[in-house]
Amino acid sequence: MGNAISRASENIRNIRWFEVVQVRGEVVDGKVGHYQVTLKIGFTLDEGWGFGPGGCQSRSRPGRDGLV
After folding, report:
1. Backbone dihedral angles phi then psi of residue 63, each to the nearest 5 degrees
2. How far apart (Å, rounded) are the C-alpha atoms in residues 61 and 19?
């Protein structure tokens, strides 16, 4: 999970929270061979960016959260 948050923070600012949605993996010789985690990441949009009818708009509401 730490790798996912680190990678996301390279492109997304103001990450505030994460939620583990799903964990799955493979068992090899009685041990965990590998696993995959699906996350939701919450972030706060910078002022000046927002979403509304028609996609991105030039104005936003400060402090609005978005999901990745």
Report:
1. 85, 5
2. 24
State both tokens at 53. 């009818």
Ramachandran sector of residue 33 (left: φ over 0; alpha: ψ -120 to 50; beta: rest): alpha
Residue count of the chain, please give it.
68
- Each residue of 56-68: pLDDT tens digit? 554 444 455 555 5
Q: Say which residues have a Cβ less than 8 Å from residue 57's Cβ, sequence separation at least 6.
A: 50, 51
Give dist(CA 13, CA 3) in Å, integer. Answer: 16
Torsions phi, psi of 7, nearest 5? -65, -45
pTM (2 d.p.): 0.57
